Amino acid sequence: MAEQTPKSGISWIGAGLILCAGILIGFLAGAQSGKLEEVALADEGSSAVKTWEPDPEAPTSTHNFEASMARAAKVIKDPHNSYKRMGELIAFADAIPSTGFEASLDRIRANQKGHSQYEMMTAVYEKWAGRDPEAAMNSALEQTGSYAESYRRNIAAQWAGKDPAEALSWLEAQDDDSLASQVGSNMLRAMARVDPEGALQTAKGSLFPRQQYSGTVSSIMSVWAEIDPAAAAGRAAQLESKQDRENAFRQIASRWASEDPDATWKWALSLPDSKSKAEAQKSVVIAIGQSDSEEAIRLAHSMPEGSEREGALSQVMNDLSRESPEEAYHLAMNALGPATRNRTLSVILRNWARIDPERAFTVAHEEMELGAARNNALSGLISQVGTHDTDKAMALLDRIKDPAAYQTALRNVANLLRGEDIEYSLNWIETLPEGRGRQSARSGVIRRWAEEDPEKAATWVLDTVDEKDTMKESDIRNILYNWASDDAADAITWVLSNLESEESQDKVLPSLLRQWSNQDIDAAATWTVQLPEGKLKEDSYSSLISSWVNFDPSGAAKWLNSVQVGKARDKAIAQFSSNIAKIDPKSALTWAGEISDQQGSSDAVQQVARIWKGYDPTSASQWIRSSNLPTEVKEKLLK
């Protein structure tokens, strides 16, 4: 096959990226100086620009921190006001006192829960790390819960970006494999922005876990490709592992293609025939397709047949459909295989519905063959119309005659009713024909209700929905899981007060407890110990430990040593040993031997050995051969 070369580059994309970067830098600089005047975000396909301006009554950096926190909390929970959420968080960050960071954290913990607490504490730690990264990290090390690791990673990246030698020296002095596993990749990624080759060499050292090496290399190469893709490509070819090379090639192609498609295409053609070569070509085609769909399609047809070529053509047609949906529709019908064509048509018709909803509906309803692809296309385009014109969307819904297509489209009714009263929406849904579509529509409205008032939503479903309804249990479960992300203790209290059967409680409590342990491990542990012996206690112990060990393995170990011997503790130890096997397999084996049940202990030991052998087969195999395990077990593990 003759080599194809792009006719022309797309330099405007590089210019656009530079412009966006400049806007972002200016935006952040304004946030830091407290002079932010406006955050503007435009919806795709809409000329309207939404703006956020600081409220004249909002607290400034010299005003009330508490009031700023309260204002931010109101918008953090609203997923539909991202522009205002960003603005209020920036105003909150500006109001954080430059001294007394720990006091600010204390006030946040006392007044906020769940995601609101996380967002605000992240803002404090980012500001603190800019002043004194070591003090900020030492504070983050004292944090518990699932968010603690995120705080540490963010601080590590900031620190390494500012002074990589100091950050790495501090990490080495900690002599903590678990901590290195948590923050090492972030440090090396930040270091790669200054010295990518140094970051690669450091990743090979004994400071970082061997099992994370490939992922870390991929992360470093991604950063290098942003800075100097040609140099990154040359270095990627020298990586020892074939898997690492191919992962790096994918990262480089996706970055380089948007900057210089001509050079990326020539480089891709020089690669040995492989999946990574086809993926590199795909990246170039997609990049060119944003400005020259004809040229992109020409290059795509020069690629070998396969999923990468289909994927490239699909994306080009999706991009084309934003301006010329009818042309994109006919190209997709003629150029793509059935599976890719069906997925692509759904996207094209949604884009078409923005421009001409009547024509898009007619094409989907009358020209597409009956089946799942047509049903999904109709559902998607009606949902798209509903984002701008609810009445028009509902009228199109009524024109669907095929029952299967109608039920599929009903699943998006909750989005169409977003502006309506909850009670009105639920009553209207009950008038619709029975089926999975009506159930999905009701579930969607209930999810929206749960965002505002989870207790009322859960109680309504429990009291109103028929027990035979197959969606009732999942609706309650989804409400509780979302509720628990903000206040797991309240969600658990509702379960114990309202779900009468132990079976119903057993299905949700362990998962809710895991979320509670991320928010308040001491309270969750105290509650768990008081449970009566039985399956719920055993599952709860296991859930508690599976969360606890991720952010505080030593604290989890101390708790295990303090609780009564029994089935619940045995199950928790099995979970604990399995988790720490990835970091400290010998300690994990010791813990597995603590299980009181002989068979349970043997099973846990074997599980640790399997995990160990997965990332360090030499050491694990040596241990297995010298162990006291039965011969048949050794033979099985060594296979």
Describe this structure in words.
Residues 5-63 have low confidence and may be disordered. 75% of the residues lie in helices and 1% in strands. It has helices at residues 11-33, 65-76, 82-95, 101-111, 114-131, 133-141, 148-162, 164-174, 177-192, 196-203, 213-227, 229-236, 242-259, 261-270, 275-289, 293-301, 307-320, 325-335, 338-355, 357-367, 372-386, 390-398, 403-410, 413-416, 422-429, 436-452, 454-464, 472-498, 502-519, 521-529, 535-551, 553-562, 567-580, 585-592, 598-615, 617-626, 631-638; strands at residues 39-42, 49-52. A hairpin with a 6-residue loop joins strand 1 (39-42) and strand 2. The two termini are 45 Å apart. It is globular.
